[in-house]
Amino acid sequence: MKKLFLLTVMALAIFAAQAQTERKGAVLQFNEKSIDFGDITQGDRVEHTFVFTNTGDTPLVISNVAVTCGCTAPNWPKEPVAPGAKGELKVVFNSAGKMGKQNSVVRIYSNASEPIEKVSLISNVLPKGQK
């Protein structure tokens, strides 16, 4: 009985050690997930650079960045981001033709363990002359 117990404990220890050494792949971690510009005037263009780090153990490849409307334009690294390295996602929001509260969501598609991440630009667009 003692031998069976000892064998079970050893098997569990080996399994636990193996689980800890498994690769976790690329991990996309943003410093911030949203930016609020507050009140802006209709027609203003605002931009923000979201900084991220690949905290995983394999290169991060961003395959696509999708926006909710043509009012938002993203620019992202086309080359793989090495483990431990930082990258930047620059996003520009053009408020022409927009009014009121805006929440422009940007979806980042990659080979990360979470394949779709989101960041957003928030603003309140006021008519010209009201700011």
UniProtKB/TrEMBL annotation:
The residues the entry assigns to the signal sequence are 1-19
Q: Which UniProt keywords apply?
A: Signal
Spans traversing the lipid bilayer = none
Superkingdom, taxonomy of origin: Bacteria
> What is the protein name given in its UniProt record?
DUF1573 domain-containing protein
| Organism listed in the record | Fontibacter flavus
